[in-house]
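Good morning C.,

I know you're traveling, so I'll keep this short. The sequence:
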Amino acid sequence: MLPKSQKLRLSEYIGLYDIIIEKDHWIRKLHDIIDYEFIYDELKDKYCDDNGALAYDPIIMFKLLMLKAKYKLSDRDLIERGKTDMAIKYFLDLTPEAEMPHPTLLTKFRKLRLNDESLLSTLIAKTIIVAKEKGILNTKTIIVDSTHTKSVYNPMTPVEILQEESKKLRKAVYEVDETYKDKMPSKPVSDNLDAHITYCKGLVETLKKDKTLEPYTGVIEKENYLEEIINDNIENKISLNDEEARIGHKTADTSFFGYKTHIAMSPERIITGAIVTTGDKSDGTCTQELIEQSNDNGYTVDTLIGDGAYSGKDDLQYGKENNIKIIAKMNDFVRNGNPTASKCKGFTYNKDAGMYVCTAGHMAIKKVNSKGKKDKTQARQVTFFFDVNKCKNCPNKNGCYKENSKTKTFTLRTPSLIHREQLEYMNSEEFKSLYKERYKIEAKNSELKNSYGINKTYTSGTFGMQLQSVVAIFTCNLKRIITIENEKEDNK
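The C-alpha cells, ready to paste straight into the viewer:
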C-alpha cells in the first residue's frame, strides 16, 4: 500500500543539519531544486490502494537510487554509508537519528516499482521544466551521440562469472591475511551452476562471520557485490549471463558487450531525450526518435548536430520535411546503399569502424574502393567483403547468401541528390559555426560514464540498463542545472 507523502519530521536533533551541511552544499541544492512529490503520482499505479502492508516511502527509495548513481555503490554499501552520512539523511528527508531502510527494500523497489518504459522520458521532461523556469534553456538545438555501456557480466557463462567474482573476493581477503586460504570453503570441481552458487554463498557467509574483516572496505565491497549478483538473479530466476546484451563495435579492431544509451542534449548540456538499445544498434537508427522525444519532453528542436552517423538519407530527408537543420558531416559510405542489391536490405554502417554490419551483427572484414574520380559529389563505388564462413552458417542467410558462393559483398554507389545538397551545405559558414558545438556531447558522455556509473551495468537486461540510465540522466540534469545556477551567482 502506498504511504502518504512524508516531509522532514520534527526532531530535537534537526539542528545538526544546519551545523554539518553547508548552505551551498550540492546535496542541499539537489534536495531543494525540485519538488519530488511527482514520484507519488508516477508510481501510484504500482501500489495497491487498500491492501497489503504499508510500503516504504517511494520518494526515499527513488532518492536512494539517485545517490547510488552518484556514489557508484552497491545497495548494501549505500545504506551503510547513509547510517553515518548526515548529508544523505538530509537528502532523504530523514531525521538524524532515523534508521536507514534495509537494502533489500531498495532492490525490490528497483525491480517491482520502476518497471515502466516511459519513466525515462517523464523524468527528463521534469528536468526540462525546471531548466525553463530558471531561464536556462534558450536554444532549439540538440547535439546527439551515443555512449556504450559494458555489461557487468560480459559474454561469459554463469559459472565463469561466479568464478571471476569469487576470485576477486578471495584475492582481496588474501591481501589482508594470506593464512585465510585454510579457512575458505572448498571450490567446486565441476561446472555445475548450482554447485558454484552454493560455493559463493558459503564464501560470503564465511567472510561475514569474521568481524576482523569489517574494517577493510576492499573486502566488504567485493563481498557485497558478489552477494548482490547472486541474490538479484536467484530472486528473479534468471540466468547470471546477460542474454539481452549484444556485441557492438567501437572501431574495426575493438568491440564491447553490452548496451548503448543514445542521447540528445541542448548546448547548455541539459539532456532532452534518451533511448536505450542493445550494443549492436547503429547510432543513426535513433535520430528521428531523439528529435521527437525531445519535442515531446517540452524542448522544441529546429537544429540537430551530430557526427557522420546522423547524415543518412532518411535522416536528411526527415530534416528537410520538418524544417530541421542537420549539422552532420557526410560520411563517404552513408548513402542510399546498393540499389541493385536488395538482398542486403537492413545492413547498417558503423561509423567508428568504417565498415558495414549485416543484419546478423557480423562486420565486414575489408572494403575496396573502385578507381575513378575522387570528387565526393560524383559517382563512385565501394565494395564491402564479409567473412563467407560466417555467412554459410548464418541463421539469416536465406535471401542474403547464395549457397556455395565464395564471397559475400555489399556495394555502395552514386550518392543521392539530398546527399549532394548536404555536401554543399557542409561548406557554408553556418554549418561550420554550428558544428563547433559538437564537442560538448563528448564531455557529457564522459560525465555519464565516470561520474554516474554508465560505463558498466549493475544488473542484466535492457530494462535494467534503462533504469540505470533513467536515474543517472535525471540526477545528471539536476546537477547541471545547479552548476549553471552557481555560475550565475558567481558572475553577479
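Safe travels,
E.
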